[in-house]
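Annex B, item 7. Sequence and structure tokens for protein A, then protein B.
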Amino acid sequence: MAHSAKKISRKDIRRPDQFFALSHKVVHFVTGHRPELLAALALLLAVLLGIWGWDSYRQRQERLAAQDYSRALNLYHAGRYGQAVEAFAHIKSYYRSTPYTGLSLLYQANGYLALGDDAKAAASLTELLQRENKDSLLRQIALISTARLREKKGQCKEAIASYAEAEKIAGPFKDEAILGKARCSLQNQDLKGALNSYRQYLTSFPASERAVEISVRAQEIEGKIAAGGGK
């Protein structure tokens, strides 16, 4: 049995179309709040332009920093350390928000070390440590470099602290940090501390090329401790 089509009444025909009614409301709202809407639109445009401008500025800064860093690095590798440290200082001052600042501080410290100025090298490393987060490779390198400087000055207790902090960072210089602790412990006549560090090295790096050498050192220290020597 066929269904009869629904009849459309005159009332239905006169009923306003929903889309038309909604459009009319929107137009009415916009007309009544035009100043506020224009202000909001202007604010949104300003924010978008600000974001775009900052992004463009940041990209330009990083590009210029990369160029200056390359020139400074060339000076360093050419052995022109005095000019290199000045070039790295320029990058540190003018491009602080770029990744090249940390690298520049590290190479600036190396440049000062090459010039024999340990105090300025230590200052650059301290600034780098203040800048870098706890788990970065640059921080690990800076800690080991700082420990070496302290070890060189006979400040073995402070050097051990820096080596120990560097050891906690997941990076390629953990083995060097552990051996640094052992070396400084021996300088402090702390045989037990040195033995613990050597054992730690053998546990962490059993397949190392130096494993046999470190094992022999550990056995020698064990003999001295058994004989009543050391702390």
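Protein B:
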Amino acid sequence: MHSQENIQAIVEEYRSLFAGAKTDEGESLENMLVCKGDWSQKAASDLLQLAHNYGSFMLRNALAISMALGIEDGDFGF
């Protein structure tokens, strides 16, 4: 993921994935990430927690820094 186009593609992928979410019927976003997004339970939980805790402003800057420094897989190894 080294271009704006790839980032937009991922955003659209998650929009599509979550569009069918019926969280009021017990299907959580975390479960959707695990079952349909191929994430582990821990990674799915951490992704959602990051999104909720930091939001796009902070994470956008973290993404830019990690790309500038060439960090693809961080210390947690997801």
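Comment on protein B: The chain has a mean pLDDT of 86.
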